[in-house]
Amino acid sequence: MTDPAQGRRIRVRGQVQGVGFRPFVWSLAHDMGLRGTVANDAEGVLIHVAGDALDAFETALSGQAPPLARVDAVESTPADVLAEGFSIIQSGPRGADTRVTPDAATCADCLEEISGSGRRAGYAFTNCTNCGPRLSILRALPYDRANTTMAGFDMCADCAAEYDDPRDRRFHAQPIACPACGPRLWLEPDHDGDPITATATLLRAGAIVAIKGLGGFHLACDATNATALATLRRRKRRPAKPFALMGSLDMIGRYAQVGAAAEARLTDPAAPIVLLPMQGDALPDGVAPGQARLGWMLPATPLHHLLLRAVGRPLLMTSANLSGDPQVTDNDAARRDLAAFADAFLMHDRDIARRLDDGVEAIGPRGPFVMRRARGRVPGTLPLPLDGPQVFAAGGELKAAICLTKGSQALLSHHIGDLGSPLTLADYTRADEDLSDLFDHRPEAIAVDLHPAFQSTRLGRAKADRLGVPVIDVQHHHAHMAAALGEAGWRGEVAVGIVLDGLGLGPDGTMWGGEILMGGYGAVTRAAHLTPAPLIGGDRAQSEPWRNALVRLDAAGEQALADRLFGHHPLHVARRMVGGPQAPLSSSAGRLFDAVAACLGLCGDRQSFEGEAAMALEAVARPAALYVFGWDGQVIDPAPMMRALARDLDAGRDVGEISGAFHAGLADVVARAARQVATQAGTRTVALSGGCFQNVTLLTLVAEALSDLDLCLPGEVPPGDGGLAYGQALVALARLEAG
Amino acid sequence: LSHGGGGKAMRDLIEDVFTSVFAPPGMEDQARLSHPALTEPGAQLAMTTDSFVVSPVEFPGGDIGKIAVCGTVNDLAVGGARPLWLSASFIIEEGCEVALLRRIVASMAAEAAAAGVSIVTGDTKVVGRGAADTVFITTSGVGVIPPGRDLRAEAIQPGDVAIVNGVLGNHGAAILAARGDLALTTAIESDCQGLGHLMEAVITAAPDTRAARDATRGGLASALNEMAEAAGVTVELDETALPLHPEVKGMCEILGLDPLYLANEGALVVFVPEDQAEAALAAMRGTEAGRDAVIVGRAQAKGPVPVTMRTAFGGTRIVDMLIGDQLPRIC
Ligand SMILES: [Fe+3]
Ligand SMILES: [Mg+2]
Ligand SMILES: [Zn+2]
Ligand SMILES: [Zn+2]
């Protein structure tokens, strides 16, 4: 026994559990000849270490951390260290090992292994501490094999040896597997030979195959095969919504423009879909009709790597689900629900415990931002600029996501989906239970949207009743603004928010959505807004853009053009609905995009999916001199813009230029309005948020116009309703602090 | 018509317009009633009351008088009661045309006769202009539930079949069109009708009928939500099976309304065990009010919400209880 030596007690904070951090520390200490211990606890990783070169050791802790680790802080204090050698202290059965990291794409080492000739050559379920499934296979806490869908697979002796060896990169890799002991792949209907090869043959021949992935089933086909694409669109009854694509970096480069920022996101362990401008060779139009960008992702699992390699062409990968329902996750449901879509099923026997969609990201003017936070990003946490009691935020309705706060950390959930589907609603409840358990969450307040009929509002209120905690109502666009401010770490007194969005209920009972707000986390005032227009037929105005075009043209005195463009609709009835109960007023910017798109002949009669018209409008936009909007210091009036647009339409001007002039005009007027409000309020901070800022053209124009101010732009928190809960939580925290 | 506090003009009016039409003549301040069904051991008395306000008071397919009789008769019938007697109380706005009142009262008398009920007592008040809208009617009804009959929503079990008697939303659509402010041209008539005979036929053909509810204000969606909630089941509707008049469908599309929430005055939903569904359906189709009866859904084990709908595209949607107005919520 050695004497206690003067050493250090080192606390490591961040995402340091379940990512191979302890074995990394163990190896590092061994290599440097240090003595001590390393353990997980509730706050992260705790190291006691003694020996020489402790500064170098500390530096290496963050500098050489394993790929999935994120070191937020290394705090070191002198301490006596009583230890011989260096060892990993195991945590108890329900100790601190409760952290679960997001699912991570196959690492380079595993990729090399499946491509080599070892025992995992060609094995579709290869993974290690640095990669592989996590949340998607988790059934219960703590995160160990018995609580995952790997429980039924007994480790073989070889795998067990790796699992127990701190020097091995599979030390304590819970989903460790090999062909001798792990999950098995097969193709239905039955076939001879290797299922990957057989699937590739089918795909190359134009078949549609349902493929069981990490977080759910996909429908896949050869993305270069126009006939297969048309068949898939017909079977899915999905005429126009863009499909996502999977390719290698080389393949993607052939069809799309991949800048450095995009490549960094594509190769991130989260392996999201990244929207990339089309460039080079063209894929059939059926991939994404009328779009200028395509959604690409890299293979995220060995299965997908092997399959893509065998096919040798980009694959179309779309979530497999019944219309409006969430993605199918289990084999029997796939056989039943997908029979009408798929010619074959590539199945395996590792269950999916949690449904997780593919994430979607885009590259904005100042770097990437998340459009759909999903697989690979949860349950990661985000920092909050406020601290306070634990809060649960219930989110929105169509792109529901929840947010749990603890101290200054927020757990913003994955995209759960449209709560109008009972299956998605069940997922929502499940996500609440899971994440609450994972985060050991005991909320002292529940934040909900003002809209009383959102399922999330109802469930949030019910949860508050159950727990006996207060409900905090948060106006939709205030939450959007707070989300952008919060992500930027803003802590000031007053900021300005440009919130361009679909719809959210305002405190005055009308629907808001084109707002310049002024204030902070606790409260805002509506400093300016778009001239309200009636939503003819309420929610119908969302699916039929001509209704918005009609009211905006009429308001601009362009009735004759409306008659000409939309005379095949019952305009006399629609016009008489104005002022009545079926035509509530709205300042929505999203509906203004719909109106302009409809005037240009883009999806005027009907949109087949949410955002179709606005996306089509952005896709055609070309740089053009702006249309001037009205602006009187309080109201932003689209009428002058509509009149200019009507003149140009009559003159036969190119729709791309008209779209460009609209984008430029809207960006100009909201930027001018925000600047004026900011000056009055004595602030330099402007936050951009709301679903319309998924439009990169608009985001870029507004950001350029305000580039001299301090801008808060969406990043990891989606600008749309997927980020709403994060903003709701911030508003709640601010109100709780204010008492 | 001018209002006078119980003066001669008023008495003449009551005499002339009301008493002569409603039986029995020579009505006292209270009706004195006897009926053999009341003496049957185990029989239960059923009683209900409802106030009727509708604008306009006359519309294609009916008028406020017809609704006032049908609504109360139907509230008794869906509980398994045989409707016997009604009372009718009128609040009349000063200036209401006597001819209109006569038509309304005649319509009530005809509907009561068809339903086999007697209007045995009543009251009238005339109020100043603006204190009422033309005429308001309150009807109360009394009926008898035969021994052994016990229809209640709590009895609905997973597997039970939901049947509606005919097209949905016609009443709500007819009223909207009749208001005229939307310039809707349509031939849609209100479905206003009595459901007493139909209920007797269903219960006879399907003796284990669990429960029935008339889908009045709030439409089928509201009726089903209440029933499913009470029963602790989830009802799944089949969108493709819902009986809708094409014009109602078209009107809902332009107005942005959901026909599941439109009011009906002669539509009901009845739950029967699966093995009696065919018999119930046949019996309903044999009645005037049930010619277009159809199975629209099924009770299932309780899920996250009381009512869902399998859509024409194969997905499922939640069919909510309305909170307040139909606020837009697609964001
Ligand atoms: Fe929103
Ligand atoms: Mg009633
Ligand atoms: Zn790996
Ligand atoms: Zn093995």
What's the gist of this structure?
Chain A: Pathway: Protein modification; [NiFe] hydrogenase maturation. By secondary structure, chain A is of the alpha/beta class. In chain A, 33% of the residues lie in helices and 21% in strands.
Summarize the structure in words.
The complex is a heterodimer of chains A (739) and B (331). Chain A is α/β, with parallel strands linked by helices and 739 residues long. Helices cover 33% and strands 21% of the residues of chain A. Chain A has four domains: 5-89, Alpha-Beta Plaits, CATH 3.30.70; 185-348, DHBP synthase (Alpha-Beta Complex); 379-488 and 720-738, Nucleotidyltransferase, domain 5 (2-Layer Sandwich); 512-517 and 530-712, Nucleotidyltransferase, domain 5 (2-Layer Sandwich). Chain A is globular. The model of chain A is unreliable at 93-97 (pLDDT under 50). The termini of chain B are far apart. Chain B has two domains: 8-145, 60s Ribosomal Protein L30, Chain: A (2-Layer Sandwich); 153-318, Phosphoribosyl-aminoimidazole Synthetase, Chain A, domain 2 (Alpha-Beta Complex), CATH 3.90.650. Chain B is built from eight helices and 13 strands. The chains are: A alpha/beta (739), B alpha+beta (331). The complex binds fe (iii) ion, magnesium ion (MG) and zinc ion (2 copies). Residues 107, 109-110, 127-128, 130-131 of chain A line the site of one zinc ion.
